[in-house]
Amino acid sequence: MPDVLTPQQRHRCMSHIRSKATKPEILVRKWLWAHGYHYRLNVKSVPGKPDIVMRKYRTAIFVNGCFWHGHKGCKQFVLPKTNTEFWQNKIAHNRQRDQRNIALLRSNGWQVITLWACSLTKDKLENTMQQVSIALNYNFLKIIK
């Protein structure tokens, strides 16, 4: 099925997609704050400029959109039928950058948590965030030893 929007309309729509303060990221931030966790956003001095930085726990959290980061096996990641080569290259580049950033963070002693948008739906949010809480507490215990 051809695109129902003109190239100019499609460009305008795609250019308005944000990379900061996305809905999944805001859900994570609200949950963390409500449960007493303090954090900083998009800290430039931390490699990879993670979405959420928790220095006390020496933990960086990335909140990834399933489409933009190519979440394998996810229903939300479907490669577009038009301009397929462009999207394959873009998503492959995003994945490579993600792996490079994670490796750099870990080599600098940071713990990394990657959350996918599909795991932050209403029915999965609480369970996902409980697992994040457990990981943060574990990271904190490793630091104070």
Describe the structure.
- With 145 residues, the chain is of the alpha+beta class.
- It has one domain (19-144): 3-Layer(aba) Sandwich (Endonuclease, Chain A), CATH 3.40.960.
- 45% of the residues lie in helices and 12% in strands.
- It has helices at 7-15, 23-34, 84-107, 125-144, and strands at residues 40-41, 52-54, 59-64, 111-116.
- The chain has a 4-stranded mixed sheet with strand order 1-2-3-4, sandwiched between helices.
- β3, α3 (84-107) and β4 form a beta-alpha-beta unit.
- The longest helix is centred in the middle third of the chain and has 24 residues, at 84-107.
- The protein is globular, with a radius of gyration of 17 Å.
- The termini are far apart.
- The model has no long low-confidence stretch (mean pLDDT 89).
Proportion in β-strands = 5-15%
- Write down the CATH class: Alpha Beta
Please give the count of helices. Answer: 4
Kindly, what is the distance between the CA atoms of the first and last residues, rounded to a whole number of angstroms? 59 Å
**Strands ordered across the widest β-sheet:** 1-2-3-4
Largest β-sheet summary: 4 strands, mixed
- Rg measurement, Å: 17 Å
CATH-level-4 superfamily name: VSR Endonuclease
- In the CATH hierarchy, the architecture is 3-Layer(aba) Sandwich
Question: Which spans have pLDDT < 50 for at least 5 consecutive residues?
Answer: none
Mean pLDDT across every amino acid position: 89
General form: globular
Q: What's the number of extended β-strand segments?
A: 4
Order of H and E elements: HHEEEHEH
Work out the oligomeric state of the chains in this entry.
single chain
